[in-house]
Amino acid sequence: xxxxxxxxxxxxxxxxxxxxxxxxxxFLCVSAIVCVSASFLLTKSVEQSRGNGTEAVIVSxxxxxxxxxxxxxxxxxxxxxxxxxxxxxxxxxxLRTKLQAGDYLVSGTMSISDIVKKIVRGETVEExxxxxxxxxxxxxxxxxxxxxxxxxxxxxxxxxxxxxxxxRKTYPFLLGMPADATLEGFLFPDTYFxxxxxxxxxxxxxxxxxxxxRVVPALATTAEGDRYSALTLASVVEMEVRTDxxxxxxxxxxxxxxxxGMPLQSDATVRYVLGETKIKxxxxxxxxxxxxxxxxxxGLPPGPISNPGMSSIVAVLNPTPNKYMYFxxxxxxxxTVFSETFEEHVANKGKNGL
Length: 354
Fold this sequence. Notes:
Layout: H1 2-8, H2 10-48, E1 57-61, H3 67-76, H4 83-92, E2 102-106, H5 112-121, E3 129-132, H6 139-148, H7 153-161, H8 167-170, E4 191-194, H9 199-214, H10 227-240, H11 244-259, H12 267-274, H13 283-286, H14 310-317, E5 326-329, E6 336-339, H15 342-351
Antiparallel strand pairs: 1-2, 3-4, 5-6
Helix pairs in contact: 2-4, 3-4, 6-7, 7-9, 10-11, 10-14, 11-14
């Protein structure tokens, strides 16, 4: 009984209280670490949670439907890889109640933030002629698709090759391109609905708006004088390799080649000059006289050789440091094979049938 009394004295509790406080502090610290880690992982997953559906599809969102219904629909159609990052982004940005009902054209190549922006802005599917331009398509190929859909490809191509000076006032991002440059590279590849009555001006407006909304924010941290170069390099990277990870490696390889005065030696630039695709270029092909031939000329070509998608642009802005100086693509599997030395590169050519 005396012992129990001793334990209950203020002196006894004085020794036990710090242990309680320590336990509480440890619990709070662990909880904080868990919360921070979870927040970091969710934020990262928002950036990476793209779906496997590359084709644009229509997703409907009803006025009475909740965000989980929308998230599930996006997941089922291959637009996002998981519902959790999508819902987390909506809650984090306080956008849950700002979603607008309607039918939206989206694809798995879009980021969660881009999908949400489209729905918040109410950019629903429009009436008109649907034309899809895949990443890496050239202006000439775009013109062919427009013709195939009953729109004037020739007028479009003329406007691209000789852009009206007024466009530079409407779209400030065009101010950084050379005076004699075309709009190649600025025609954002996406699925569009063009009003046949809108003509070429309507087509260009939609595509340049797409570039302004998607690409310009990504280039915001790049020096204004370097943006055209970054876009040009992205257009080459787009045509060289297929995967996001390979693009980041190749972007770094090209940057280092430029830094040491080594030609890019990009087959993609030769294809652009020839206007045709070959598995292997001849010595005559790679010697063709053109400022776009990066076997003959050092540095970047004069301008973009395609209209790159966001993946290639991001790769150029955030390349992956590596020790490689050479690479090739297996013509059968499409796999990119990297080499550190020229001798290793030559050996890899033989192994991959090139």
